[in-house]
Amino acid sequence: MNASGLTAMSKTPAVTRRVRAYFAPVDRVLGIPTIFDPAAAGRFDLDNPPDPWTDLGWIEHFTRKSGSQAGTLMAGAPATVQMQVKDNVSATVSFRFVTWNKLTMALAAGSQHMNLLSPVGGTAAIGSGGKATPAVGLTAGSTAKLLAMSATDSATFAAGQIVAVDGDYSGQIGHVGKPVSAAYVRSADDVANDPDYVRRVTFNLARVAQVTSTGLTLTDALPAGLPDPGMKVQVVVGFVDREGGRFFQEWSALFVMEGEQGERLLFHYPRLQSMEGAQETSVPMVSPLNREMLDACFRALPVSDGNDGEQVLCYRTFLPVSVYQG
Q1: Cα 171-173-177 angle, rounded to 5 deg
Q2: 20 to 30 A from 100, CA-CA: which of 75, 115, 116, 215?
Q3: Whose CA is closest to 115, among 10, 234, 15, 20?
Q4: Considering only CA atoms, which of 75, 89, 37 is closest in space to residue 311?
Q5: Which pLDDT score is estimated for 326?
Q6: How far apart are the C-alpha atoms of 280 and 99, rounded to whole Å?
Q7: For residue range 67-77, what is the model confidence (pLDDT) as tens digits?
Q8: Are strands 80-88 and 91-97 parallel, antiparallel or unpaired?
Q9: 254 pairs with which residues across the strands?
Q10: How far apart are CA 267 and CA 11, in angstroms?
């Protein structure tokens, strides 16, 4: 066998600097992850990932671990190995997020991640945010970047605020939230029948760019796109996660290593569930400054490959240099 054609495109070592992380939703109700096709999109612009992937920037301490093991089938006297079989299949991945925001905090937490809704005074204190200022309804004409409402309602908002846009909680059981499942409700009593509960956990957030008499213009389009009828708006003053809880975050993930010579390494995990509680690492800078980073650790769950039905936890892709340099 002449293997020169197989080795000609990989005679030099792959040299990379940093790892970039991208995440996309998993439909928890239907069990459908976001699949990344490296043949079609492997060379995407790192600053403009294909929809619906969200760029979470450069990460540090990226570590992949395979727990898969091979067993053996033995026969004969004396017994000798006749073949190998997969005894078990598992994989984990861990890293540190450099930046803090809604999504990085949620991914690094082991449970529900909540929005701190703007509070109304004179009510009982709650660690994840007390009773919220009443939500504002939308009117006809709303789009993914324009939240239409009356002049009276729009006057209660200000440019620069973050808003949550989602429906009321009305007794529904199961996964809730747009555009991804943000929590799982087992009973209405668990969430005190709070009409604001879905907006407390939703990922359908945006920042207000401008306030007019006809509504709110947003800096970016809502992640869930065009608002559904009945969605309402509330101001978010911050984010909170908790140690404990029974909900597992689950997302599709893509990690990219850009080679110095133009090659590219990609690691695609169709289904990752957070497997540890909220942790952070403090890295000293120039005294008295420290850099706070979010520790994240995930367990990979399987999908079935569309080409041959094989069970897959992770796809590792190598894209060689695209221009021949002979």
Answers
A1: 90
A2: 215
A3: 234
A4: 89
A5: 44
A6: 11
A7: 888 878 888 88
A8: unpaired
A9: 22, 268
A10: 21
Say if residue 5's pLDDT is above 70. no
* Secondary structure class of 85 (helix, strand, coil): strand
Residue 87 · residue 71 · CB < 8 Å: yes
Determine the Cα–Cα distance for residues 30 and 122; give it in Å rounded to an integer: 42
Distances from the Cα of 305 to the Cα of 28, 66, 309, angstroms: 19, 19, 5
Give the separation between CA 60 and CA 96, rounded to whole angstroms.
5
Average pLDDT, the chain: 91
Q: Measured between alpha carbons, how far is 86 from 280 in angstroms, rounded to an integer?
A: 36
pLDDT at 325 over 50: no
Whole-number Å distance between alpha carbons of 176 and 267: 29
Q: Where are the beta strands (DSSP E) in 168-289?
A: 174-176, 183-185, 205-212, 215-218, 232-241, 250-259, 264-274, 279-284
Letter for the amino acid at 249? Q
- Give the pair of three-digit tokens for residue 312: 């897959």
In 3-state terms the chain splits into helix, strand, coil percentages (rounded to 5) of: 10, 45, 50
Nearest to 24 by CA among 302, 298, 272: 272
Query: Which residues face 184 on adjacent strands?
Result: 175
- Beta strand 146-148 with 162-166 is unpaired
What three-state secondary structure class fits 187? Answer: coil
DSSP 8-state assignment for residue 91:
E
